[in-house]
Amino acid sequence: MRCSAAVRSLLPLSLHSPAGPAPSPIHTSALPLAAELEAGDALHALLSTLPPSLPSLFPCLSLLSRRLTPHSVADALLCDALPPASRIRLFLFSALTPRLRSPLLHSRAVVPILLATDADAAMYDAIADAQAAGLQPPTAAFEALIFAHASAGRHHEAVEAFSRMEGEFGCRPTTFVYNAVLRVLVASGGAVPLALALYNRMVAAGCLPNRATYNVLIHGLCKRGTPVDALKLFDEMISRGITPNVKTHTILLSSMCNAGQLKEAENLLHSMEDKGCPPDEVTYNAFLSGLCKAGRVDEAIERLEALRHTGTFVLGLKGYSCLIDGLFLAGRYEEGFQCYMEVLEQADVSPDIVLYTIMIRGCAEAGRTNDAFAFFDEMKEKGFTPDTFCYNTLLKALCDAGDLDGARSLMSEMVRNNVVLDIHTYTTMIIGLCKEQLVDEAMQVFDGMVEVGCHPSVMTYNVLIDGLYRAHRLEEARMLFYKMEVGNNPSLFLRLTLGANQVRDSETLQKLVESMCQSGQVLKAYKLLRGIIDSGVVPDVVTYNTLLNGLCKVRNLDGALRLFRELQVKGFPLDEITYGTLIDSLLRAHRYNDALTLFQDILHSGGTPSMPIYNSMMRSLCRMQKLSQAINLWFDHLPRKYNLLAQDEVISSARKKFEEGCLHEAVRELIKIDQEYGSVNSCPYTIWLIGLIQAGRIEDALKIFHILEESGIDITPACCVHLSKYLCLEGNLGAAVDVMLYTLKKGFTMRRYVGNRLLCSLCIHHRRKDAQALAWRMHLVGYDMDAYLHESTKGLLYNQ
C-alpha cells in the first residue's frame, strides 16, 4: 500500500522518495545529527496528525524508516503528547524493522503506555492490521502486553494475551514470553499445576528453558509447599547443563527451611561454597531465619558470630529483622528488644516498615500493647505508611487482650485511611468476637466480608462454626458447614462446571490441566483453576473435628460416626484428634466395641494411635475390670513407640513377669525401658494403679505407688485420692498417711472429704497424736485447717 499525496506533504522534501524502488537504508552511524533530528520532527508530525488506524500509517513509517534510529523511535514512544494508539503502532513497526529494533529500549517505553491508558485493544488492532498487511506479528508486542498486564496485577489478561498470541495470531512464543507467563501463573496463586503443564509444552515445542525458567518454577513449587518436587526440577536443570545461580539456591534453601528440613538446607549451603557459588546476604538471612523459626535461636546466633569472624557476612537490616523475629517467636522478648537497640546504634542501619511491624508484634505478644502502639506512632512519624499486615498485628493484640472497642476503632481507622481489610483482618475480628461470645456480631462481620468480595478462609468458617456450637446454635452451625462444603468444594465445582464426574483429586486435576494445555486451551485451564480458588475454601480437618466434637457433645454419636465414615469414603485425611474425639466419646457412652473398631482402623491403616487414644482405651478397659487387656494393649504399643521388634528381649522379659503375676516387677522393667529411651511418662502406670484399686487389688496398687515414687515419676492426685480411700477402708492407715504426706510434698491440695476421712480414721483407731501431727503438717504447707476440718473432725482431734 503506497503513501498518499496528502501524507507525503507532511514530510520534509529531503525525505520524499521518487517512484520506483526504495533507496537502500542509511546506516545509523553515517546519519548526520541534523538529519536525525529532522526525521524525528517529521515522525512526531506524522504521529500527531494522522489517525492511528489509518491503513497507510505503516507505509508512511516505512518511508521515514531509512532516516530513523532506535533512539529517535524511543524518543517518540516516550512523548506523552502523542496519541497512545499511534505510539503503539510505532512500537510495532520498530519491532518489525530489524534496523530499528531495540527490544529492551522500546519495551520499557511502550509498557507505561499500556499501563497508563489500558490500551491493549489498540495493540491488538495494530497487530491485526500488520497481519492484514502480510506482516508477521512480532513477539515483542505480546511480551509487552504480558508484562504490562502482569505489572498491573491483571493475571487473567496476561494469560489471555499469551493464549491469543499463538492461537489467534500464529506467533510462536519465545523463551522470554514463556518465562513471563510462568511468572504470572506462579504469582496468581493456585495455578502452579498450569505453570508445570506450560513448561512441559514449552519443552515439547523445542523452546529451550533457561535459568530464569527454572528459577520461576522452583519458586512456585516451593511456595506451594512441595520442596521435594522443587528439588527434582533443580536436578533436571543441572542435567540440562544449566548452572543454578545464587538465586536458585536461595529459593530452594528458603523452602527447605520453611519445611523444617534444616539439615538439608545446611548441606545445600555448604554445596554452594564447594561449587564456587558463594552464598550472598539473602541466602545467609534465609538460613538464619529458618533456624530462628525452628526455635534454634542460639544456634542462629552462633552461626552469625562465626560468619562475622570470617568477614564474609555483615549483618544488615534484614538480618537484624530475622534475628529479632526469631527471638520473639522463641518468647525471648527482652533479648529481642536489646537487639533492636543494637540496630539503633548502627550508623548505616535504620528501621524499616518490616522491622517496625516485627517490633509491634513482639510488644503485642509480650503483653506490652502500649509499647506496640508507641512503635506504630513512631513509624508513622518517620513517614512510613502502615500496611494491612501491620494493622492486623495491632488488631490481634487488641482482640487477644479483650479490648473489642479498641479493635472496632482500629478497623474504622483502616477504612478511613483506605487500608485494605483482608481475610486476616476479618478473621481476627471474628475470633475476638467469638471469644467474648458475641456470635451475632461475628456473623455480621462475616456477612460484611462476603459482601465486599473477601472470601472467608477455612479458619474463618472453623471459628464461626465453633462459636455457634458453643452458643448451642447447632442448626446454624450445620447450615454454615453445608454452605462451606457444598458451595466451595473444588471436586463438586469441577463436576458442575465440566458437566461430568471427572475430577476427584489433585492428580486427576493435574492431568486435566496438562491435557488442556497441550491442546492450546491455556486460558481455559487458567479460568478453571481460578474458578476453584475464587469459589472459596474447602473444609479442612479442623472443620470436621469441630463438627464431630459438636455432635459428640450433644451425644449424637451415630451422626458423628456417619460423618466419620463419609470422610473415610471420600479419602479425607483424618488426624489423631478426629479419632481421639470419637473414641473418647464412644468409651464414655460405654460403646467399647465401636471404639475398638476405630482403634483397629488406625492400626490397619499403618498408623500409630496417639498417647491420649491409648490412655482413653486403657482407662475404659480398667473401668470394665479388664486390667490385663489394658496392660497387654500397652505391651503391643511399645514396639511401635520405641521402634523395636515385638520379640525384643527387654519387652519380652517385662511381659513374661506380668504373665507370671508379678506386675510390680514388670512395671520396674518398663520404667527402665522408658528411662533408657528418654521417654518417661506417668501414663500408663497411674492408669493401671487406679485399675488395680478398682479391682480391689490394693496391695498391688500400693507396690506400684512405691515403685513410681522411688523412680521419681509423678503420681497424679486422682491416684492418691483413690488409694487413700481404699487404704482407710482396709485399715492400712500407716500407708494412707504415707500417701497423704506424698501429696503434701508434691503440693497437691486434697479435697476436704479426703483429709477429713483420714484424720477421723486415725482418731477412731486410737492414733490421735498421729492425726494431730498430720493436721499440723497440713497447716504448715498452707491448708487453712479451721476452714478445712469438719466440726466432727475437730471434735475427734482436739476434745478430750
UniProtKB/TrEMBL annotation:
Residue ranges of PPR repeats: 174-209, 210-244, 245-279, 280-314, 352-386, 387-421, 422-456, 457-491, 505-539, 540-574, 575-609, 681-715
InterPro entries in UniProt: PPR/CCM1_RNA-binding (IPR051222), PPR_rpt (IPR002885), TPR-like_helical_dom_sf (IPR011990)
Repeat in keyword set: yes
Organism, scientific name: Zea mays (Maize)
PROSITE patterns: PPR
SUPFAM superfamilies in UniProt: HCP-like
GO biological process terms on file: mRNA processing
Annotated Gene Ontology cellular component terms: cytoplasm
Assigned keywords, A-Z: Repeat, Transit peptide
Protein's name in the database: Pentatricopeptide repeat-containing protein
Record NCBIfam families: PPR
MF terms in GO: mRNA binding
Domain of life: Eukaryota
